[in-house]
Amino acid sequence: MEKYPEDLRTPPVPLIAVVGCTELHSSISGHLHSQKPPINTLALPDFSKISVIGKAPKPGGPDTPPVGILRRDWLLKHRTKIPAVVAALIPSEQVSGDPAQWLGLCTLLDQLKAVIRTRNIKLVIVVVQSSSEDNMNDDRMIALRKRVEVDSKYIVNFSVRDSSEVKQSLNRHDSQPTCSSCPCLLGAVFSELVNIYYREEGRRVKTRIEKRTFSYAELAVRYCFKTSALEELFLVPALKFAGMVAVYAEFRRDWVEALKFYEDAYHALREMVGTSTRLPAIQRLVEIKTLAEQLHFKISTLLLHGGKIIEAVLWFRQHCAAYKRLIGAAEVTFLHWEWISRQFLVFTELLETSSKNIPGFSSIVLDVTDKALTEWELQPAYYYQLASHYLKEKRSCLELAISMSELFSQGENAGESVVASGYVGQFARLLEQSPDEAILQPLTDEDFVRYAIAEGKRFQDSFEIIALLKKSYEIYTGLKALRMASDCGFQMAKEYFSLGEIKNAKQYFNYAVSLYRCEGWTTLLWEILGYLRECSRQDGSLKEFVEYSLEMAALPVSSGDSVAFKQCGPAGPPSFQKREIIHKEVVGLVTGESDLPSSDVPKNLRITGESPLHLEIDLVSPLRVVLLASVAFHEQAVKPDMPAQITLSLLSHLPAPFEIDELEVQFNQSECNFTIQNSHRTPSAVNSTSEDSHRVESAPALALFTDKWLRLTYDVKSCRAESPASMEDPPLWKFEEHVESLPTKDPALSFSGQKAIQVEEPDPQVDLSVDAMGPALVGEIFVVPVTITSKGHSLHSGELKINLVDPKGAGLASPREIEPYATGSHHVELLGISGLDEERAVEGSDTIRKIQHSFGLMSIPFLNDWESWSCQLEIKWHRPKPVMIFVSVSYSPQSDDSSAVKVHVHRSVQIEGKSPVFISHQVLLPFRHDSLLLSRVKPIAEAEKLPSLPLNETSILVVSAKNCTEVPLRILSMTIEGDDNALGSSCTVRSASNQHMDTAGPNLLVPGEEHKKAFSIIPITKTSKVRMGTVCLTWMRDSEYLSPADSDVSGVLTKHRLPDANVELSPVIVSLECPPHAVLGEPFTYFIKIQNQTELLQEIKYSLVDSHGFVSSGSHIDTVSVLPKSEHVLSYKLVPLASGPQHLPKVTVTAARFSASFQSSVTASTIFVFPAEPQF
């Protein structure tokens, strides 16, 4: 695309000419260039230079046949020489001056009009005012308009008094009333006249096309080209030109019409093929293809930049199909393939610039349902690859043309005087060149062929082919299209190989060969391995040469796979005979028995004792296709020092048999290694080894035949074998026509044989016991005894491992905010190991003792046979959770050597962790002493309901602890601790009893039994809330309790935080007072005390309901007023009428202000009546 002329590669921009007042040219040009769309300017210093834009007379008459289709400089001429508008800059003094100045101005304007009429160029008169004293004469302005015959709006006043007015005049000017009635933009005047000019020119040419006023097809193409160019204007910078009718359309930005006329010109040009004899046949076809290339370029550009990606691709396909068969004469076939390659290259560059506008591939393919469009046709890599392909065709045809040309030696300087003629696609011989005119002579086809061949020899196409392939390779690699990328890399490598750049060639050969090996492309592998083999030969790499040769000799190819020799590279066509030749060559090179004389073998490809050859075949080596090894143990496991059978199988795909002198089998334990020697052959000097402790086996024959397994079976003791090769099939030799065999005689062993064998540990002769008496209780230190007893083995380097694991796999960690009472971040914690035998403590620096939250490790002292050692695991539960305890003992029964075989013993036990007690509480008011709490009167949501305590009044707190386990517990103490903060010190809590423990000892709490204790609580600070404290319960298992006399009894502390309580000032307190018991028939006084603790007068209503067990005296119903901070007492005389528990008269007290009533409970209203005075 860069080889196109600049006027074709850059967008069409209108041109205007500015005449006179040279000092204003730079400012006007800069302003017009900054407009959108921009406008170019042609600056003429004075009116004497106006003739340069005049139209010269054409030679010949109207019936003269055209010399060519499109002049080469036509686009450049309309961009730089032929303006659409002429702006005449006239000083104001010439317009309003004396008659002589006016007559001189009229003469200049008449000359200007005569010149521009020949081309229909539009005219703008700009009157330049340089001072404020310039007053324009209205009569002169009217005369000026009539003289130039233009509309008044095209006569513009331009003020240049200062720089600000110049800038204002460029952007906006106020026309005189005689010139225009409204203000307008200066750029808009030029843009309007530019559009008028190109529209009229296009219309004029279209009229000639429609009326067919010409006799030659060349003119039809030319006129369509012109009209389209005027319709297109100010497209993106990537736009290219290609037409005359269409060019006029481009200037006016009429994309639809421009595209239409470009297509018309394209089709008219295609119809000219074979119908015109104006030029010799070869040159005529070259001219048509050159112009078709430009027309196609314009059409593709308009389609792509219009977002019509599908239409552009389909148009390109149609373009290639229309001209692909127009090869032309045989001697210039290379020009055709070069032209085809250039079409693909230019289109992919256009497609690449518009790739950001391409939608998804799937949606594009779905849109084109009636035409076959593949997703590769939307990728630039596809076109880069085809461009390189056709360029290689051009190179081949050029080489053939050079070799067959008889005139080549005579035309050595044939291209020196050949130049491009005045028409697109034509060439001529330059005879004489002068400053004014060049004399050209038409070429014959023979001259043109010599010129084309001479030009073709100047360029080396390999570098351009590599550049195209590299772009395609990079794009395919980015798209993960590995096969296409490998093909491009392969083609690049062949180009580098032909240029002698071996290093670059090997780089891309190796990339492609890796994919062909994985996917098993046999024919492609043969060709690429042939190139790599030749590269290693030229590079002097012996190891690579042998590896590539062996791989080629083992490829599954036959004579039926042969293709054309030129497509098979240096190795030639693949065949079984060729495989044998390569095999024989590489074996002779390795053994030194080559048929070639030693002088013909390069020095760097000779094997000597000083530089032996070592080849390694591992799991990923490509040489697995040459030699395949299989190792199979007959058993899955074996005891120590017991023999285990192993079968070693070897398979060769080489075309000829060969023998092995010595075979060494190695294991991961060196003492198991052994060597197999061929008894029929003496080991060579290179393969001989010094005497060592490895055993040597002898085999009657170690010969490998093509596609036949060599099976060797031997015994191995105490080793864990690992196969040096895998039995996974390589991608080659899977679907070839050969007899399939198994590596072992036993078919089951071939599929189930082990590549490794496990040597089991000796049976342990140590007893490990873990005794746990569950369940474990939260908070206590739970002890798990562990005992190790030797029953036949001595314990050397023993280790004890402890692991605490959640049986459900949920983990043992606990967030602190979830478990505030936990001492750590774990639910269960291993605290330590106690109860160790100090006499058997492990001595020395090898002692190990490591304790973590859920893991423990410690050393075990040496134990002789039938000795034992024990310890205790101390574990603490922070929350109820089941735990699996894994205990493992590892030891060496022989010695303390760290490399000695270890024996392991494992035990596990699951322990359930439980909460020991369930603690609850209850808040009560004192007996027969009730306080009015307003929070109990108002309805409150259940979630927000808290206990309420009366301020400065005693309340009873009853704490209960229930045994939730299956084991008896001893309660040592129960106390309540207050908080240290101000909220916690706002109340006092005391035990209802002065003793913390009964004299009989700690209370026994059997499973399911409750232990209760009462506390008094008095809020002493007027706050909204108060913290009652934390219950501290000290307990222990009953099995651990010895006697009450034991003063060292220590228990487990369990804490339970009591909830917060609301504190209220009771406005009214009601108390009932009566003797603790009564005697039948003896009267006693029953008091009801009402206390007002507020600052207000309280109205109290009370009532008394008689009971059948008493005779009462006093007011039964009334209303009283209780003064602030005072107490009112109601007294009644009661005489018991019956003995036993009797209900006192029921009392109801109502506080009218709070609408709250008090009724005594059944318990508070009950008194025991004795028949006679009791004697205590």
Automatic annotation (TrEMBL):
The upper taxonomy is: Eukaryota, Viridiplantae, Streptophyta, Embryophyta, Tracheophyta
Domain (Trafficking protein particle complex subunit): give its ranges.
284-554
A Pfam family matched in the record: Foie-gras_1
Q: Which domain of life is it from?
A: Eukaryota
Family annotation (InterPro entries): TPC11, TPR-like_helical_dom_sf
User: Could you identify this protein by its name?
Assistant: Trafficking protein particle complex subunit 11 domain-containing protein
